[in-house]
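Task card 7
Instruction: Convert sequence to structure tokens.
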Amino acid sequence: VQLQASGGGLVQPGSSLRLSCVASGFSTGHYAIGWFRQAPGKEREGVSCISQENDDVFTFYTDSVKGRFTTSRDSAKNTVSLQMNSLKPEDTAVYYCANGGRPFDSGLGSRPGEYDYWGQGTLVTVSS
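Output:
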């Protein structure tokens, strides 16, 4: 099981970035895939999660990114993306994707301990 996050960079406030998490060794359609971020001196924070079981798709977003960030899955590429719009300086962090080891129901997805596998991080810096 491997996850590879990419797409970070330095952008100005109000800009957009799209992060990608490429999975290998498993199908993203069978597991909850979360995005987390960790800013210097702060704890790792759950940003989003997407999970699908049969026809039911569950997504989670932390309050600070609702309406600005969208997570989605591309089954053909076995990739989960995080589209980040209207970026703010407080979004600056290293972003990680993670595999939850199973599909998640509502109420799960925000805590690092719920995830079994982690990719390396990609740095997002929002600054003028």
